[in-house]
Design brief:
Largest sheet of chain B: 2 strands, antiparallel
Largest interface: A-B, 26 and 21 residues
Strand content of chain B: under 5%
Number of helices of chain A: 8
Order of helices and strands of chain A: EEEHEEEHHHEHEHEEHHEEEEEEEEEEE
Helix content of chain A: 10-25%
Low-confidence stretches of chain A: 1-8
Shape of chain A: elongated
Number of helices of chain B: 14
Radius of gyration of chain A: 25 Å
Order of helices and strands of chain B: HHEEHHHHHHHHHHEEHH
Number of strands of chain A: 21
Oligomer: heterodimer
Strand order of the largest sheet of chain B: 1-2
Mean pLDDT of chain B: 89
Low-confidence stretches of chain B: none
Amino acid sequence: MNETNTKNAGLSIRLENLTKIFTDKRGNETLAVDSLSVVIPPGQLVSLLGPSGCGKSTTLYMIAGLLRPTAGKIYFGDNDVTRVSPDKRGIGLVFQNYALYPHMTVRQNILFPLENMKIHRDEALRLVNEMAELVGISDQLDKKPAELSGGQQQRVAIARALVKKPDVLLLDEPLSNLDARLRLQMREEIKRIQRETGITTIFVTHDQEEAMSISDLMIVLDLGREQQMDTPQEIYNSPKNLFVARFLGSPPVNTTTAEVINKEIRINGLVLDKTNVKDGKYNIGIRPEDFRIVENGVFNFKPEEVEIEVIGRDTMIRFDFGGSQVRAIVDSDSIKGKEKLSIGVKKGKVLLFDTETGRVAV
Amino acid sequence: MMQKRQTRFRVKLASARWQVRNFMQVIGEGIKKGLSKIGLGFLFKLPPFTRAMIYLSPALIVLGIFTFYPIFNSFFISFLSQYNIYTGEIAGYTLFDNYLQVLSHRDFYQAVINTAVIAFISVPITIVLSLAISVALAAIKPLKGLFQTVYFLPYVTNSIALGLVFAYMFSGNIHTMHTQVSLANAIMKWLGFGPIPWLGIGTIYWYAMSVILLYTIWNGLAFKIIVFLTGIQSIDKQYYQAAQIDGASKYKTFRRVTVPLISPMIFYILITSLIGAFKTYSSVVAIVGVTGRITSGSTGFIDMRTIVFYVYSFLENPGQPGNMSLAAAASIILFVIILFFTVIQLQVGKRRVHY
């Protein structure tokens, strides 16, 4: 907190059996976060990813101290901060709609957190300028938030969150109010600011693409529980369960049921791939890009039997199989002039999940 | 179970609203047909502005007769000399006579002082108090509805009736106050003070004024609390969460976040209640009585009349030639005073209010 340089050593965050139950007026209980235990390593940008109502924002607000956990503990480094008030936790929080004070100028907004600290005014103003420079709004300091674009407001919100030199930066769906182009730009900006400051950052989002592109690590949540925590690529390639497989990827993974007989994955007698799991029924997932056009593949169609959408370099082929629609993305060149489409599955790319637990089958 | 019932109720409400809408549409078409039948169908072919004017005309006519005409007429009357309201006779026209006569009247000065005291003491106190109460009400969850009702009750109650109750609570004079202890004096006694002849013989100006002020403040709270509470509740909670993370104290959050964010409402309340305070009349009638004066031992009487009260006292004897012109002149002076303070507020507001 007292460091004067921009670079921060970072702090690890540990959640232990963190649980939050909301009780409404009528006494109905909602389990928002269900004994969540994760360790967030120092200096990393970590995404909390999940669908609406999965408990990701609740988790963030508990880390911020704005919500009191029903059970469990929160550690910053070695310190138990579960009962520490938000202003003493050394956090900066960027709200979904920024919560910039509309009646204050940008400078006053960024200065506001410092007003409540014992700090010399000149030093405070210097910090404000430093932050404005970091986020790239030095020329906007005398404007009111309403005069700024969404992206600029976002930058001000980040500057206000960082000006106290917090140990942890928390971002609650920070890009959801921006248009598509700005979103891409701010995504890179947040990544850059995080790299420059080295601050441990938690980023809440429901947008899997956003999370994959920005994070060092992702925590996928559903129903208040951790589903998987790993690097984005690892989660994408080896989802732990069907939920994670379905949640990541656009277009989404194709799912159906298959049987494993004699180490062969079979659907309706067609052999998709070989495997080492024991025989039985499984839910399977195949990502659209894991199909390819081959000479003698599993699925054979005439071109008019399927729907073909050429999207530049890639071509999406949609066909019905086993009562469900399957999307396959293949190289556009590979289907040129073919009278017969033969679609195969890349080796080792079929994801197998236990039909009962939904967990990955090994 | 409860929730289910509520959703069902909501669905019913929505469908009822839809039916009302359909009904209104049928009526609208009926009116259109009816008007066309009697040859008024051209109304629907008129340009929108003309049509709007026709629709607005009933209200404009009523306003014209009962608001605009009296305003201009009283302005006109104030320039008449020895005007007799019954015969319409005048002795001629004058520019300043009536105004000078009002301004040289001692009673008018006392009325201006009384009005100013009420306006400049009660308005700031009411606003500060109602802000504090609104913040407190916004902060509590249980019994909120009950408290809101309690604070709003004076607003829906007749002010004369309330004033009479006040007058009763502060009753008694220098002779009777020891034997017939009023509620106010009972409280004074409990606090360790002697009884006070608030509104009766033997009182002094500030005793009587404090009762009027207390009444005005209390009576003004209700509406302001409703306005401020609505304002505070419409403030995004994230501002408070942000302030909490930034380590701002409760007081600082109030001063730097709440007040600026509801400043348009505070400003609106400030202007309307100052105007209202300058027009104070009924509360003085109810508390002090129809003469507006309290007979007091040695000095004769204490005059508690406000400017509006002063204007009305001319109407006790409307037949007296010239009285109506004096009343008109006094009310125009009141208008100028109100205009002056409102313009000042608007100027200050430009810099201080954040829309």
